């Protein structure tokens, strides 16, 4: 997504340390990619408009071109937020190139609630204006480009400071250079012509609801395994990931029982909940995130088809999205966006 591959640098450092230190993780080749139009990759002018199919193709085919040029036959693909949505889009079209698909706090999983458009009328005029602009193709990145550098850079500094607030549970001893991260964020968002940041309005309705939600698409993706990782304070709701995992597990169990000799094509989906983490778990709880990612990319016991694959959620989890302190118009996935 638009924050770029470098915000995972602490996680990659921790992961590589585990590869070399105690052998707890099988050594592998790791490539961190800034997708086309983001940060250090080239920024071609956006040509897909607000068409979700063309927008997905913009990313999917550029990633496929990179994979082919890099000589990679098959890979474990990890994507965060909208990057998770696009990783799923890639696996949907090029399933033979993906072994394990890992979606970290993926955007675009659920369908838009039927009453959302009515609920949003209860929001302030500022929020309604922002969502209206979103629907017409405006994005936070475009807004940043319109601001004087002094103000825009201050926003990047605030983002860098907020995203690097570490959990007390995090045991990673390496720190992030906040100044370098602020530079990376600001120049990645503000340099060049309007490019891939335009995808927000193309694939998401106002309010971060996908025009082509993944809940209908993930069960049909022909990859052996899909992993989903959410933070327990994530504004992406882990319950939606659980629902898809349980749906696929029920389909797999039924198919296995009725046609035991045939290959079951429904993917096996596992969901993990990362504690002490929000949407940027790879920055907020680095060691916990790496542990979850290690499990996601490791071997899974698929012998017992009835074993739980969905994440176990705290009893009060729903209150974080629909509690008495959450305004009614915000009781949707992404209510924190209004903040």
CATH topology: Rossmann fold
* Number of beta strands: 6
Order of helices and strands: HHEHEHHHHHHEEEHEHHH
What is the CA-CA span between the terminal residues? Answer: 20 Å
Biggest sheet: strands side by side, in what order? 1-2-5-6
**CATH homologous group name:** Alpha/Beta hydrolase fold, catalytic domain
CATH architecture: 3-Layer(aba) Sandwich
What's the structural domain tally? Answer: 1
- CATH top level is Alpha Beta
Radius of gyration, taken over Cα atoms and rounded to an integer in Å: 20 Å
Residue windows where pLDDT falls under 50 for at least 5 positions: 329-339
Structural class: alpha/beta
> How would a textbook summarize the main sheet?
4 strands, parallel
Q: What's the shape? A: globular
Nearest-integer average pLDDT = 83
Please tally the helical runs, counting DSSP H or I stretches of 4 or more residues.
13
Report the sheet-strand fraction: 5-15%
Helical content (DSSP H or I, runs of 4+): 40-55%
InterPro entries: AB_hydrolase_1, AB_hydrolase_fold
Pfam families: Abhydrolase_1
Family: Belongs to the peptidase S33 family. ABHD4/ABHD5 subfamily.
Protein name: AB hydrolase-1 domain-containing protein
């Amino acid at each position: 997504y638009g924050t770029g591959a470098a915000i995972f640098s602490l996680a990659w450092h921790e992961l590589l340390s585990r590869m070399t230190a105690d052998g707890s993780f099988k050594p592998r080749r790791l490539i961190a990619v800034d997708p086309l139009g983001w940060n250090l990759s080239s920024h071609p002018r956006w040509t897909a408009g607000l068409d979700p199919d063309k927008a997905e193709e913009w990313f999917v085919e550029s990633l496929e071109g990179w994979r082919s040029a890099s000589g990679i036959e098959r890979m474990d693909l990890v994507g965060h937020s909208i990057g998770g949505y696009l990783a799923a889009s890639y696996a949907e079209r090029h399933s033979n190139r993906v072994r394990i698909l890992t979606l970290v706090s993926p955007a675009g999983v659920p369908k838009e609630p039927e009453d959302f458009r009515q609920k949003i009328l209860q929001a302030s005029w500022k929020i309604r204006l922002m969502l209206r602009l979103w629907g017409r193709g405006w994005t936070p990145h475009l807004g940043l480009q319109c601001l004087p550098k002094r103000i825009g850079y201050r926003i990047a500094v605030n983002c860098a400071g907020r995203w690097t607030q570490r959990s007390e549970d995090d045991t990673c001893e390496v720190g992030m250079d906040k100044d370098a991260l602020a530079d990376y964020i600001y120049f990645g968002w503000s340099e060049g012509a309007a490019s891939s940041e335009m995808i927000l309005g193309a694939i998401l309705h106002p309010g971060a609801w996908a025009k082509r939600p993944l809940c209908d698409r993930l069960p049909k993706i022909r990859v052996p395994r899909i992993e989903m990782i959410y933070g327990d304070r994530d504004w992406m709701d882990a319950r939606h990931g659980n629902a898809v995992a349980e749906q696929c597990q029920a389909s797999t169990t039924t198919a296995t029982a009725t046609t035991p000799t045939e290959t079951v094509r429904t993917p096996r989906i596992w969901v993990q909940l990362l504690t002490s983490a929000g949407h940027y778990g790879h920055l907020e709880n680095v060691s916990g995130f790496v542990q979850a990612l290690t499990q996601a990319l490791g071997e899974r016991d698929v012998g017992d088809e009835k074993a739980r694959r969905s994440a176990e959620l705290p009893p009060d989890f729903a209150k974080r999205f629909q509690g008495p302190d959450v305004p009614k118009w915000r009781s949707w996935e992404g209510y924190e966006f209004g903040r």
